[in-house]
Amino acid sequence: MLRFHEIPLFLQLTLLASLSMFVPAVHASIWDNHHEARVFLYGGTLGVFVSTLVAITMQGNGARRRGGLGSLAAVVAAYFVLPVLLAFPFYEAVQTTSFLNAYFEMVSAFTTTGAPLFEPGRLSGTMHLWRAQVAWLGGLFVWVSAAAVLAPLALGGFEVTASAEPGSSDTPLGRFEPARDAHRLARVVVQLAPLYVGLTFLLGFCLVVSGDSPLVAAVHAMSTMSTSGISATGGLEGSSSGVRGEFVVFLFLLFALSRLTFSTDTITSRRQGLHNDPEFRMAVLILFAVTLLLFMRHWFAAREVNADENAVHALRALWGSIFTVLSFLTTAGFESADWDASRGWSGLGAPGLILLGLALTGGGVATTAGGVKLLRVYALYLNGVREMERLVHPSSVGRSSNQSRRIRRNGAFIAWIFFMLFALSLAFVTLVLAANGVNLEEALILSIAALSTTGPLVHVASDLPITLADIDGLGKLILCAAMVVGRLETLAIIALMNPVLWRD
Questions:
Q1: What is the rounded distance in angstroms from the CA atom of residue 125 to the CA atom of residue 114?
Q2: Could you tell me the CA-to-CA distances from 497 to 29, 52, 192, 480 in Å, in that order?
């Protein structure tokens, strides 16, 4: 009998991706868009049929002893190969684009980057729903793979807290390791999937109550939970919910600041309470510090204007700043409708450098946010404070506080290695794009947007929006690879070179 948990991880993902195509098929059928309905119906049916046949064929083969690295290889293959399957219905439904553009769009969505290749008016509601749904599934995949695949191998930010070396498990390679991997994966899915689905439905319901249409609410809800920034209206500023909708989205973006906001399955210490979590504390500090800097920059110059207008403009500028700062810190990339008021208040024409810095910092470990991650920044901060103490008192003995118990002894060293790898990746992608004919400034913005999985940066980080459609095929393939590396992180790619993966 065919059991789902015994199917290889990559086949599980192809089967689930094929099943997900029936949702846009139903949506297109309801709106009498029969061409798109047939495309998704045929694509989903064919995908389920082929995946089931391959799974049945592989039931006769014995399980390979590859430990957790076999699952890691499946995760890497999913980000490169699965978008090919997801791109076929998109390509056939749109009809006016190339398959490379469709593949780029699906890589951008599945990695939760959300780089806008198509203008919102060019795509139908079903296509917007499909893009947001792929990103939503990618966000759930990040939640699950972080706990079931990356955490046991001390990767994805867990290398800062784990006792094992990056790419190695705490437990030796055993005879029944594949069974333990399958059991752990199933347990994590059962634990997190209902929570992820429930939070998405709750956010969508709140947005509908706030005034959005069901389609716009569904797209923005899935984009918020996955931090992809995908929108059917060109952003939250184009929705009907206004400030009420932005406030609801603001609350749900907090789930991308720390995994402790929704789960404790990967915590290595016994500290309880979100107020003790270093990632959440640092995120709050960054949020209020950057917001106050933007808000106070031209306060004294603006206070000589009419006081009543100042009060209204000040509140709008304050809200626009705090929402946009949190959005880019979590790598969602939504702009507030009051962001223009905030820029005018602070006197900044295009504060792209601030947004680039926020996106590079990123959100919490094992969340849907990209970037360097707050835990690594916190580890380097602790190391810097300790080094300054030693400058004053060279013979002092370091102490372990409640906030630093989560960091391993060599956590700062591992974090610094990741910073260097990230910087080298950024420099390499920038140089390759520049050599391919992209302007140097645009190449830098595109590289940061891809590696930090913050696609909306291409529209807001420079004075003029960058048009991704104008980039040639090679440049798009480079960005696809950069988005996958940014989602997986460089240490995970290096871990694939471990000889254990290829040992049978």
A1: 16
A2: 47, 30, 30, 21
Predicted confidence band at 390 (pLDDT cuts at 50, 70, 90)? confident
DSSP annotation of 266: T
Structure tokens at 342: 């905030």
| C-alpha to C-alpha distances, 27 to 139, 198, 323, 476, nearest whole angstrom | 22, 21, 32, 30
Closest CA relative to residue 79, chosen from 485, 501, 446, 455: 485
What mean pLDDT comes out for the span 265-271? 59
User: HSE (CB half, 13 Å, CA atoms) of 34?
Assistant: 0
State residue 66 phi and psi, 5-degree precision: -120, 5
Q: 3-class SS at 146?
A: helix
Cα separation, 73 vs 496, whole angstroms: 7
CB-based burial label for 219 (10 Å; 0-12, 13-18, 19+): buried
What is the tally of helices (H) and strands (E) in the chain? 20, 0
Determine the Cα–Cα distance for residues 65 and 60; give it in Å rounded to an integer: 16
Radius of gyration of the chain (CA): 23
- How many Å separate Cα 238 from the centre of its chain? 23
Two tokens, residue 156: 């994805």
Q: Which two tokens stand for residue 381?
A: 């901060």
Helices (H), 348-472: 352-361, 374-392, 411-435, 440-451, 457-460
Residue 473 buriedness (CB in 10 A; 0-12 / 13-18 / 19+): exposed
Which two structure tokens, joined as six digits, stand for 409? 């002894």
Q: How many CB atoms lie within 10 A of CB 288?
A: 12
Place of tokens 């990103």: 135
Q: 268 falls in which pLDDT band (50, 70, 90)? A: low
Q: Is 351 exposed, middle or buried (0-12, 13-18, 19+ CB in 10 A)?
A: buried
The two three-digit tokens of residue 102, written as one number: 């469709």
When mean pLDDT is compared over 17-21, 66-70, 165-169, the highest value belongs to: 17-21
DSSP assignment letter at 36: H
Indicate whether 59 pLDDT > 90.
Answer: no
Judged against a pLDDT cut of 50, whether residue 219 lies above it is answered with yes
Residues 467 and 117: beta-carbon distance below 8 Å = no
pLDDT tens string 337-370 = 888 877 777 666 667 888 999 999 999 998 999 9
Number of C-alpha atoms within 13 angstroms, CB side, residue 145?
27
Give me the pLDDT at residue 492, please: 80
pTM: 0.91
Q: Which contiguous run of DSSP H or E holds residue 374? A: helix 374-392
CB 297 within 8 A of CB 220: no
In the predicted structure, residue 380 carries a pLDDT above the cut 50: yes
Task: Report the alpha-carbon distance of residue 430 to residue 397 in Å, rounded.
Answer: 43
Spatial distance between the Cα atoms of 111 and 135, rounded to a whole number of angstroms: 7
